[in-house]
Amino acid sequence: MRKKNNPPISERYRLILSAVHMVYRLVNSTYNVRELSLRLTRLLCQFVKASSASIFILDPNKKKLSLIAIFNNKINILLDKRKDFASVSKREKRVTQGYAIFEKRLIGLPLVADDNVGAIFIRRKRNENPFTNFDREMLSVVVEQAVTAIKNLQLYEQQQRTILGSIKFIDKLLKKHIHDVSQHAPVYFNLIKSLAENLGVSQAGIRCLYYASVLHDAGAVDVPYEILAKSSRLTPEEFKIIRDLPAKSVELIGPVEFLKPVLPIILYRREKYDGTGYPSGLKKEQIPLGARIMAVVDAVEAMIKGRPYKKKQSIAETILELKKNSGTQFDPKVVKVFLELAKQSRFRNYLKKIS
Asked: Same domain, yes or no, for 240 and 187?
């Protein structure tokens, strides 16, 4: 005789297989621990019919809480500040250390790989049915798959941080190499980010724009300073070297796997909306949106800050130049958003800080 509230054996197998399939799909479509944790809490509430679910993640190095993802059947909540962890109970902390909780309306299971990764909790309200052994079994299935995925993502994120440290080092080398020739103002990425957000670019896309903003001139390491600093007209040979910069930058950072989505932004940021740019003569929507955004910001910075070969312009003159070249050199949609943002004091302050 089966226990009360437990489904028939055939139904149990179906639910477990369904859970395995859903978690597998989730894991293979998520690329960072934060997003995976949030999505897993929603999945748990769906499969175990819990009133809320939460996932505690430990920092892989410090072994302290680094984030808590919560879903209460209405909204997802992400806590990642030290003050957010003050209310975590001793019992919950013990689960992150390897202990389990199995109560009528609370189940807590540790996430354990080679070491403790965190913990998963599901809860039901007092007026809801108590958890069964099958509910615990379902949670265990999710834990078995989630712990490996979280551990792998943590390792991947550690590798990213290491690579980003190298990227920042490359950026410092570039600044030292080219001095003030094409060194960006501190607000350069703020301008890019503002445009991207208002054009509906995803957070992943904005991260790519950040990497591109740091690395787009990486190829300048191989360019003689005399050419970069030249204030007179470039010779055909020198101009070819400058035109090849995007391709050289792509060649330099191409082997870094997670930077692959960044490469088209760097390679095509010198393309023009009407197809007269380089290196491939792309036009309109053929040019990646990130490259079209960077093209506008690059031009704005060059006009306001000035270059060895070009005198500074005022913000008003720069805006007139953008309007004049909208639809030819620049994407009209990007220019339109730029002009709207330029009316806002915060964005205007970014522009003032360029010079």
From this structure: yes
The total of structural domains in the chain comes to 2
334 burial level (CB within 10 Å; 0-12, 13-18, 19+): buried
Inter-residue contact 341 to 347 (CB < 8 Å): yes
**Within 10 Å of residue 231's Cβ, how many Cβ atoms?**
8
b/e per residue 183-210 (b: at least 16 CB within 10 A): ebbebbbbbbbbbbeebebeeebebbbb
Q: Tell me the pTM.
A: 0.60
Beta bridge partners of 330: 326
Domain that holds residue 259: 179-354
> How many CA atoms lie less than 13 Å away from 47 in the CB half-sphere?
29
Residues 6 or more apart whose CB falls under 8 angstroms from that of 82 comprise none
45 with 115, same domain: the answer is: yes
Lowest-confidence pick of 17-21, 27-31, 129-133, 206-210: 17-21
Average pLDDT rounded to a whole number, residues 153-178? 71
